[in-house]
Amino acid sequence: MSSFDSAAVKEYLLELQDLIVARLEQVDGKSFRHDNWDKGDG
To answer: For the chain, how are helix, strand and coil distributed in percent, rounded to 5?
Structure first.
């Protein structure tokens, strides 16, 4: 089993999300609504 840096993966995915949203906003001409999501216990 290989190990990975979960913080680095999270950072990469959040940056990728920001890039995708920025490009979609350019195409759509409108800003996206930003919702924070926190996973609850359980």
So the answer is: 55, 0, 45
